[in-house]
Design a protein that fits this description.
elongated, alpha+beta, 9-stranded mixed sheet
Length: about 300
C-alpha cells in the first residue's frame, strides 16, 4: 500500500489517534560468518516507533535506528548469540521483493535489544524504513500502518475512523482481530478475577454471619431480659442491626491502615509497568510489539 497522503495524515495527526507509524514487515534470512536464521524484518520510522512503544532502555548494546535511511541493523540479544557474531559486524539480509526476486544486502549491526520474550529476541530485527524500501525496490510503499489510541478496550470509534480514511483495498483490523489469543486471554483473566472476587465475598459473608450468630446466641439472656421488660422483638432486631456496622467498620478501618502501611513499604522500590498497549488498527496480521508501553 502507498504511504499515507496529506488527507490521511491529517486524520492520523489528530485525536483520537495518539501515535502512528508506517512499517514494512517481511520475512527474511539473516546470515553471519558462522550461521543463518529466519527472522522477521521490520522497516521502521525510528521517531514514530518510539511513540508506538519501543523502549530505548531495551537497547543493551549500541544504539537504536537513527533515521529511515540508517544503514544499521538492530537485532535481539539471543539472535546475536545464535549467529555467533557481535556488535559492529556486518551480516547479510535476504528477502523477496514484490516480483518474487531475491533481494540481499549487507548491513552492520549497530544495536542489540532485549525482550521479556526470548522468541522475539531471536525472530525480530529492525532497520530503517527507507533502507528496507531500497532493498525490496518498493519506494514510497509500506506493508502496514500501526495506529495507537487512548483506550485499548474501546477501539470501535478509532477503527471506524481509520477505515473511512484508509486507501481502497486496505484491510483495517483492531488488536483483538490481529491477536485473537491475546484477546481471549484478556477475557479469561477478567472472568477469573470476577470469580475470585465472588468467592472472597462469599467467604467474608459466611464469616460475618457466623460472628453475628455467635454474638446473638451469647446474648440470649440479655435478649430474654429485654423482652421481659416489655421490649418488642422488632426493636430488639433493630438494635442488633444498628450494632452490626460497628465490627465491620472497625475491620474495614484496620484493613485500610494495613494496606497503606504495605503500600508505603514498597513505594519507591518498584515502578508499575503496564504491558498492555491500545493498538487501534493495522493492515497485516501481526503479533503485538513486545516493547509496547501504555500510560
Amino acid at each position: 500500500m502507498p504511504q499515507p497522503d496529506a488527507a490521511f495524515r491529517d486524520v492520523l495527526d489528530n485525536p483520537p489517534v495518539v501515535a502512528w507509524g508506517s512499517r514494512i514487515k517481511v520475512p527474511a534470512m539473516i546470515s553471519s560468518e558462522r550461521d543463518s536464521r529466519g527472522v522477521t524484518l521490520l522497516g521502521i520510522e525510528p521517531d514514530k516507533e518510539l511513540l508506538l512503544g519501543f523502549d530505548p532502555a531495551d537497547i543493551v548494546e549500541g544504539r537504536f535506528i537513527e533515521s529511515v535511511d540508517d544503514q544499521g541493523l538492530v537485532v535481539g540479544r539471543k539472535l546475536l548469540d545464535r549467529l555467533e557474531t557481535r556488535l559492529g559486524n556486518r551480516v547479510v539480509i535476504m528477502s523477496q521483493d514484490p516480483h518474487n526476486e531475491i533481494a540481499d544486502r549487507g548491513l552492520r549491526i549497530v544495536g542489540v535489544f532485549k525482550s521479556d520474550l526470548q522468541m522475539l529476541e531471536e525472530s525480530q530485527i529492525y532497520a530503517g524504513l527507507g533502507t528496507v524500501q531500497k532493498l525490496l525496490n518498493i519506494h514510497g510503499r509500506v506493508s502496514e500502518l500501526a495506529v495507537v489510541g487512548a483506550n485499548f478496550e474501546q477501539t470501535d470509534e478509532l477503527l471506524s475512523l481509520i477505515q473511512n480514511a484508509a486507501p481502497p483495498g486496505a484491510e483495517t483490523l483492531d488488536w483483538k482481530s490481529l491477536d485473537e489469543f491475546l484477546a481471549e486471554s484478556q477475557n479469561l483473566i477478567g472472568s477469573i478475577v470476577y470469580l475470585m472476587t465472588l468467592v472472597i465475598f462469599m467467604a467474608l459473608s459466611f464469616g460475618l454471619a457466623n460472628t453475628f450468630m455467635m454474638a446473638v446466641f451469647e446474648r440470649m439472656r440479655e435478649i430474654g431480659l429485654m423482652k421481659a421488660l416489655g421490649m418488642r422483638p422488632s426493636a430488639i432486631v433493630t438494635q442488633i442491626l444498628l450494632e452490626s456496622p460497628g465490627p465491620a467498620g472497625d475491620r474495614r478501618t484496620g484493613g485500610q491502615y494495613i494496606r497503606r502501611a504495605v503500600h508505603l513499604s514498597f513505594e519507591g522500590r518498584y515502578r508499575p509497568v503496564c504491558i498492555c498497549r491500545s493498538t487501534g488498527a493495522g493492515w497485516n496480521k501481526q503479533y503485538p510489539d513486545p516493547h509496547a508501553r501504555m500510560g
